[in-house]
């Protein structure tokens, strides 16, 4: 089965309406449980897969979201393109609550989150200079623009640990650093998507001005929810618009991210690591060759005993 589009819903976006032939699928992963069962269904002509990042009923903190399990699940289900929604604060006068930003960069300020599928006997390094899939990001931008949304193309998403909002000093420093929006969830999702060779883009729904603004009120949950209520409709319409353009072959490089990434000598990748990461590496991890040296040594020893 091919799933044309995966969608991760953030704060305020907990389901996609209009799906037909809906089924819920629990996915087991080597990294624990995803946030919730995946919702599979058809939207128009294409198969779509949805996951609420914070779980059913929004029970998971950004720090508690098991992004490795979530991304692994999408990979296992056959998702090639993944659009994530994330509520963010604006760090720029020109980016207003209710706007949408399609960031092209992420700056990671999280702490202690599991950020990689690799390790435990397998070393690999994927390129991440451009963490978003430009092709998918452009599709999302075009969809949002066609729907009449106020959309900003490009920008840097600073991902903080949370769950408290920024201090005023942090907010000011983030602005000085040249960041454009601040959120809590795009990392390590983007990095894990690249490791899984999944196209990934974040649509950042702007809900507030964080706390740097001299005139606007400081960010608060009621204010965030009020704006989200308005722009979640745009998010859902965007998914429908993008689905109309799919399926389409990928012309980006995301599907080849692991081609030159493996540093460990395949002969030394442990059987456990092979089993764990076979879903990602598949054909790129050649079978370990038998070690004839040992056999020869045994033969020599036997010959010596005669
Ligand atoms: Zn891509």
Describe the model.
The structure is a single chain. By secondary structure, the chain is of the alpha/beta class. The chain has one domain (5-256): Rossmann fold (3-Layer(aba) Sandwich). 30% of the residues lie in helices and 21% in strands. Strands 1, 2, 3, 4, 5, 6, 7, 8, 9, 10 and 11 form an eleven-stranded mixed beta sheet that branches. α3 links the parallel β9 (156-160) and β10. α2 (134-146) crosses α5. The protein is globular. It starts with a strand and ends with a helix. The mean pLDDT is 93. Bound molecules: zinc ion. The site of zinc ion has 7 residues, from α2.
Instruction: Characterize the overall form.
Output: globular
CATH superfamily caption: Nucleoside phosphorylase domain
**Sheet having the most strands:** 11 strands, mixed
What Rg, in angstroms, do the CA atoms define?
Answer: 22 Å
Counted beta strands: 11
Q: What is the architecture at the second tier of CATH?
A: 3-Layer(aba) Sandwich
Note poorly predicted spans.
Answer: none
Oligomer: single chain
SS field, number of helical segments: 7
Number of separate domains:
1
Classify the fold: give the CATH topology. Rossmann fold
Helical content stands at: 25-40%
List the helices and strands in order.
EEEEHEEEHEEHEHEHHH
* N-C termini distance: 60 Å
CATH top level class name? Alpha Beta
What number is the mean pLDDT? 93
The class by helix and strand makeup works out as alpha/beta
Q: Indicate the proportion of strand residues.
A: 15-25%
Bound molecules: zinc ion
